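Collaboration report, partner site 2.

Our partner group contributed sequences for two proteins of shared interest, and the home lab folded both. The records are reproduced in the order in which they were received, starting with the first partner submission.
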Amino acid sequence: MSERDHPTTPTPTAAPAPTAPTDLYRHGLQLLLDKDIDGWVALFDDHAVFEFPFAPDGYPKRLEGRAAIAAYMRDYPDHIDLHAFPHLEIHRTEAPDTLVVEMRAVGRIVATGAPYEMAYIAVVTVVQDRITHYRDYWNPLAVPASMNEANAPLSPAS
């Protein structure tokens, strides 16, 4: 007899397989390109820490918790229209949950239409399919003057 002859009992749905930190990070970049800020913020743990070691005066150097990250990112698509991440290298570290990412983002500044291009290095820790720590090393000297005038968030990953 074949399975077609005997109905099978449905097997319980298995828990989704854990997402590799590299896959989670790539998914997050696509969410930013899709302007799905809520989806991007949902990748973070409730108690995640987001740091900007090179942030200039007037910009946060540290955000604590998903709610703070969400508040910071809420209007991001109104300031920067990301088009692509044409350069992306993700390096694994000896700590299996931690990545070092080198990337370049391109797009336009919404307020002025000026081109946006920024290089980043990020150190990202993912635990149980959630980002728990994100340290974003972007270069504030490369920020276009028109972004400062628009008071836009300075980092597409922030």
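Second partner submission, folded after the first:
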Amino acid sequence: MKKNQNVTIKGTKDGLTLHLDDSCSYGELKKELDRKLSENSRSVEDRLLSVRVQVGNRYLTEEQQEELKELIRQKKNLIVESISSNVITKEEAEKQKEENEIVSVAKVIRSGQVLEVAGDLLLIGDVNPGGTVMAGGNIFIMGALKGIAHAGCHGNKEAVVVASLMKPSQLRISNCINRAPDKDQDDEKREMECAYIDEDDQITVDRLQVLMHLRPNITRLQGGS
């Protein structure tokens, strides 16, 4: 590993990792990065090398990211895989907050209505046939699910659907779909159930009690001893 004031280049089995200091100016950083990569490229093998760039507590605009990518691409056999920073924009922070929020709604979702939230959904009410609820995270329904529920709608396969009465016309988690069961559940047997993606990449419906073992991190609160 060769180290300089602003740029550290570390070789890994997968390629190169560039650690860029976050206290110098952007101009100084570019200049030194260019020089260090030029020196390093003389000893690089003929095979293509993947490059990961870490910029610490420095925020880079999209234009600056493209400049760094282009600078690295100009060197022999280097391909930029990622540029990572500890700093995010206000918009990105707000998006993360939304995705981690639990939205509580008290209403009945009737036929033709669609309720969608970015994070977890807690619905106090029923989802009637023809109604749809969607969430980027988990869906918890304190009522009857007789319509469509789509949890993890942005690709989260760890998401679950919980309902006081599980009689959906369709269940979806991430990109997995489970049609309505062949046998109707007796409405009098109101036992809460959960749906999740199992090891075979299929949606399984089981009693609620299994959820604490399948998804131990599903709550924000951790039990004390």
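Feedback sent to the partner group on the second submission included the following. The first strand starts at residue 2 and ends at 3. The radius of gyration is 25 Å.
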